[in-house]
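Exercise 7b. Backbone tokens:
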């Protein structure tokens, strides 16, 4: 596949603040039909959270206490190539999505398996 991540990623994504509580974050994800979101402070990626983490944590805890930190997650750069190895890794690890940053480490999107499927579907039409 000869595509950059920025060509496939979702640029209209939900961002969560590390300061909001888990219950509020679950409601935001639910309303937007998302199962994951980057945790962002001043446009910088602070962590990653998925709905399961929020639901198993205390609904009164702050997101920063429930999220995975940047050293615990895979982060993609928008200029990286979307490779078969990356897709295989997502499938093998059952990772639904990854955060995408630019060269200034600012969050610019998310890349999910659904984004990849949509891209493949649209390019093969």
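Sequence design result:
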């Amino acid at each position: 596949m000869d595509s950059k991540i920025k060509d496939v990623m979702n640029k209209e994504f939900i961002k969560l603040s590390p300061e909001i509580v888990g219950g509020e974050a679950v409601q935001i994800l639910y309303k937007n039909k998302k199962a994951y979101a980057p945790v962002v402070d001043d446009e910088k990626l602070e962590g990653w959270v998925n709905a399961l983490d929020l639901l198993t944590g205390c609904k009164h805890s702050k997101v920063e206490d429930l999220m995975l930190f940047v050293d615990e997650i895979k982060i993609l750069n928008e200029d990286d190539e979307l490779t078969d190895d990356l897709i295989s890794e997502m499938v093998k690890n059952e990772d639904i999505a990854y955060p995408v940053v630019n060269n200034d480490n600012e969050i610019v999107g998310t890349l999910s398996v659904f984004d990849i499927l949509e891209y493949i579907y649209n390019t093969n039409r």
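Instructor comment: The radius of gyration is 14 Å. The first strand starts at residue 3 and ends at 4.
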